[in-house]
Amino acid sequence: MFNTTQLIDTSTLQGHGNNTTNCEKNDGFKYPLYSTVFSIVFVIGLITNVVSIYIFTCSLKLRNETTTYMINLVVSDLLFVFTLPLRVFYFINQNWPFGGMLCKVSVSLFYTNMYGSMLFLTCISVDRFLAIVYPFRSRMLRTKRNAKIVCTAVWVLVLSGSLPTGFLLESTKNDVNATYCFENFSSKQWKSHLSKVVIFIETVGFLIPLLLNICCSIMVLQTLRRPQTVSCGGRLNKKKILRMIIVHLLIFCFCFIPYNVNLVFYALVRTKTLTGCFAESVVRTIYPIALCIAVSNCCFDPIVYYFTSETIQNSIKRKSQVSNNYDVKFSEALQSESTSNLQCSLRSLKAKVFHNESSV
User: Transmembrane region positions (predicted)?
Assistant: First the structure.
């Protein structure tokens, strides 16, 4: 990222010897944008993910491999959401008073959430693909034990990329003695370390998950076109699965494609591989907008939980059916009790009438 308001970089253009071009950049708009968007994401993300974790841990009795992936996705989202107030404070005051270690942790948790979300969403997509396309052959693979192993591998992979990125960041001070955070990677760091990290996270954390999500969705749709498509519980609800796939892909593409595509060009600019004032201006302008969109995935993930988890929906339906059955049985009991009382009263009245008639 880049330092405040107006920043002048000197770039040596290829083929021009010692000639230099001064590019004036004004990216001060990112501070009110970040503080506003991050505040909204914090409120919505905290509420929706706390509700989700309550449903998964307390309300939902039956758990399977799909809910295992979702619980890990919720944990990833909540870890990042808890750091957002610190980011909002920084972008409002443009000063980081919380120490260098907390700055490094906050940066690491951002990348942990970003690429953890993509990988866990991919796990959910692959799991649904196996359940629909290969429902019988995948039974041995789709177990809670294997899901836990996959989730552990995802955490190890994500942390191996996010922790080095965060801990490479060093807090620095500007002319007015304000401390920077989130935006002071040097060009030397980009050339020596961060460019390699970008290649790793873009390939493993973005490109491969994107291709897997698209391929799994296409194969599921092809399976749904077959008239004999069945599942363990009978005929598949094709509209429901189609809606699930569309929502899943839209959230994945909307949140992650703009940021990750722009990150490639951002890295090219910072390493001076891509030069020119126009290119730098476009990349630096798009970067804050794409970052805000990427952060919003914390708010959209609970939508995936609802459309993807058949277990949750069936659990809710079972609870409502039990409640309705209880109400029906209770009403029938009241009716039968009222009827029996009425019949008892009629018999008693009839006995009295006959008794009076016989005594006359």
Answer: 37-57, 69-92, 114-137, 149-169, 197-221, 241-266, 286-308
Say if pTM beats, i.e. exceeds, 0.90. no
Cα-atom radius of gyration of the chain, to the nearest Å? 30
pLDDT in tens, 289-325: 999 999 999 999 888 887 766 555 554 565 556 545 5
Residue ranges per domain, the chain? 6-304, 309-360
Q: Are 220 and 129 in contact (CB under 8 A)?
A: yes
Is the pLDDT at 356 greater than 70, yes or no? no
- The values of phi and psi at residue 24, to 5°, are -90, 130
Tokens, residue 201: 């996270």
Cα distances (angstroms) measured from residue 220 to each of 129, 208, 216, 301: 6, 18, 6, 21
